From TrEMBL:
<dbReference type="GO" id="GO:0031167">
    <property type="term" value="P:rRNA methylation"/>
</dbReference>
<dbReference type="GO" id="GO:0003676">
    <property type="term" value="F:nucleic acid binding"/>
</dbReference>
<dbReference type="GO" id="GO:0008168">
    <property type="term" value="F:methyltransferase activity"/>
</dbReference>
<protein>
    <submittedName>
        <fullName>16S rRNA (Guanine966-N2)-methyltransferase</fullName>
    </submittedName>
</protein>
<dbReference type="InterPro" id="IPR004398">
    <property type="entry name" value="RNA_MeTrfase_RsmD"/>
</dbReference>
<dbReference type="Pfam" id="PF03602">
    <property type="entry name" value="Cons_hypoth95"/>
</dbReference>
<dbReference type="InterPro" id="IPR029063">
    <property type="entry name" value="SAM-dependent_MTases_sf"/>
</dbReference>
<dbReference type="InterPro" id="IPR002052">
    <property type="entry name" value="DNA_methylase_N6_adenine_CS"/>
</dbReference>
<keyword id="KW-0808">Transferase</keyword>
<keyword id="KW-0489">Methyltransferase</keyword>
């Protein structure tokens, strides 16, 4: 069972997309991640982008905890429908779900808009493809934005765009989280 850990919608259950194509971030990992993000004071009032959103758990958790808005981008239509249903069930109108490929969304994204970004791509996504997504993301970031990438703990650290500074890396069993942003 996946649920919102804390905030206005804390304790509420989330639906997850059917099938094995998505891998929701565990409650334990989300709780640790958001404790860290709140300590850095980057959630409250943030404009959030959740790439490869799946159920929308990361973006929805951010809005539940005080983010101003979230855009959830998911290419699988069934998963996007679940994310949309989760946002509606939680009563979070500041969440918008976009059913599109991440690369296509980023190509058309407004410049300098997002303060906090989550990227939780499918584990099989290659490192070069992830590096291309991070490079394409750069123009859509606000100054001092933070980008959190979730991967398998067996994956290498992402290749960050030039001029980005690594803020943190953490491992939670099979899950690894890295965070960085433009300096």
């Amino acid at each position: 069972m996946t649920r919102i850990v804390a905030g206005a919608a804390g304790g509420r259950t989330l639906r997850v997309p059917p099938g094995a194509g998505t891998r929701p971030t565990s409650d334990r990992v989300r709780e640790a991640l958001f404790s860290r993000l709140e300590a850095l004071d980057v959630v409250d009032g943030a404009r959030v982008l959740d790439l490869y959103a799946g159920s929308g758990a990361l973006g929805l958790e951010a809005v539940s905890r005080g983010a101003a808005s979230a855009v959830l981008v998911e290419s699988a239509r069934a998963a996007a429908a679940v994310a949309r249903a989760n946002a509606a069930a939680l009563g979070l109108p500041e969440v918008r779900v976009v059913a599109d490929r991440v690369e296509r969304y980023l190509a058309a994204a407004s410049p300098a808009g997002f303060d906090l970004v989550f990227a939780d791509p499918p584990y099989p996504l290659g490192e070069q493809d992830l590096a291309a997504v991070l490079a394409a993301l750069a123009p859509a970031l606000a100054p001092r934005a933070l980008v959190v990438v979730e991967r398998s703990s067996r994956s290498p650290e992402p290749t960050w765009p030039a001029g980005w500074e690594v803020e943190d890396s953490r491992r939670y069993g099979e899950t690894a989280l890295w965070s960085a942003g433009p300096s």
